[in-house]
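We treat protein structure as text, and this decision shapes the records that our systems exchange. The remainder of this section carries one protein's record, kept here as part of the documentation:
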Amino acid sequence: MFKRQSTLSLVMIAMFAALTAIGAFIKIPLPVVPFTLQIIFVFLAGSLLGSRNGFQSQLVYIGVGLVGLPVFTQGGGITYVLQPTFGYLIGFALAAFIIGFIIERIDSPTKKHFIGANIVGLIIIYAIAVPYLYLSMNFWLHLQTSWSHIFVVGFLNSIVADFCLALASALLAERLYKVFQSVRTVKIMQVERENV
């Protein structure tokens, strides 16, 4: 039973890691921080996979990029941790975990629950990403930048669009949630019958 459930989980984790990578290439170039669709798959990973698997899907994505595959918006490799935008990737992983954590604790989550969880996730992403952006620019890249400039390029340039994506992802997650839950239930029932 454990083996079959783990296989299903691994497939879902790998799928959302791949979707996050694809989202990195659907982007609008902006100064310092490009706008991408990655955040949609972060919201969905947390909502549909749960805290542990959602978190792991983002860790897989980050890990694949850090070992050298060019899955990030500007390539890959271990030195990517020095990129100003790496804080967003850290935020993605933590946001997926927290979103999943919130949804898991509700028996029958509704639209408002998914919206609320996504907004919390969005806050977490920016709470990590913006300070990381400031530290990166000013300390290890030695590009003296003010907090006001960081606030504009790291927050104001994309927060409205990301908020809209949080709402859209919540509506999509509400529709997909029951499907994901039913697939998981069917798999568990199949395994239990085989083990009888």
User: Anything to note?
Assistant: Strands lie at 27-28, 35-36. The mean pLDDT is 92. The first strand starts at residue 27 and ends at 28.
